[in-house]
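Entry:
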Amino acid sequence: MTYLSWPNILRLGLVQMALGAVLVLTTTTLNRVMVVELAFPATLAGFLFAVYYATQFLRPHFGHGADQGRRRTPWIIGGVAALALGGLAATLSVVLMGSGPVLGIALAIPAFLLIGLGIGAAGTNLLALLAARVAPERKAAAGSAVWIMMVAGLAITGATVGLNLDPYSPQRLLVITGIVCAAAFLLALLGVWGIEGARLESREGVFGEGPKAPAPRSLRIALAEVWADPRARSFAIFVFAAMFAYNAQDLILEPFAGHVFGMTPGESTTLGSKLHQGALLGMIAVLISATWAKRIVHIPTRAWIVGGCLASGAALVALGLGAQLDSWPLSLNVFALGLANGSFAVAAIGAMMGLASEGDGPQEGVRMGVFGAAQAIAFGLGAFLGTVAVDVARALTTSDATAYGAVFIAEGSLFFVSALLALRITIREAPCPALVPGE
């Protein structure tokens, strides 16, 4: 089969950038406005994101549907369109909450459902397309590259919105969201246009033609085959634990900055972009390690995963302790947390892509769906339980610093558990990548 060249791999990364650009508005800015400006309990934001993440149970279905339908581009484009519409509707719902809380919340639920369906359909099939069409020696580097582009979308959007959102007004937020959603959809179209060609090729040959076309299988059978693979099952469990820890701080970081450090919406959004900037640098380090530096000093993928989990746990513990002090380098601490998060997450994505292409026949979609569902469900539970933990801790103590600090330290301990789980997984290393000039 014909593998994707580096220009086409990077072009697909534009889709990840689009996903990140819309997602950052919902996870940071809208969350902050609900909790601080509108004074809703953090549990409301956690509930809405749990609604979004609940749709991620459908990821295996999205991947299996594309496996059987033999084209992924329609799923990706349709998913990004749903995400953009959902992001715009979610912002409108938050604006309405200021004058009519019941109406705003009623609109927010279907909006977040639409966001979840869009992310699930587009994200699962984008990674499945990469797993199927990227040469084995490039999988780790390709996973790093497209994830770097997603985090670049998060960081650029977060920083740009932070600069333009002050002085805050609901109307300004709505206009900015509309611009970001429209730009994200156009970026995704550019990323996937013509990349599959007339038909999708598989490892066995060309889908849908000749005797090598795969026989249709039910989703239940496909899922049973994936779960019967011990390595795939262990990796899915690790992904769940690590991503639970990863996202438990996501919805409370900006409210923490507002409640404990008195930051404005623009300042806390900019702080959130520091997290993504650190993650971007961590991902770049893994990309360099998986390509040029691999010829000099080989750092195993598992070392990046385990080390990143340990460092992430240490950074969260430091954040919890620093909240108790009169002076603390908050931006530096958040940047370090992002650096550790990025290195472990993108290394895990590279390992995930390798495992996704190990099944018999065209299983990339359903395998990536299983891993993606484990990740997203953990994200949803982590986000929801993180906000619940903060609300409970704030109710039990008169100090916001103590409440948030205790939650951050508990989340850090989950990363240490994830590191132990990662040590039990066997990850096959790809051969040294071939860097062909002009690709």
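Residues 198-213, 432-439 have pLDDT under 50 and may be disordered.
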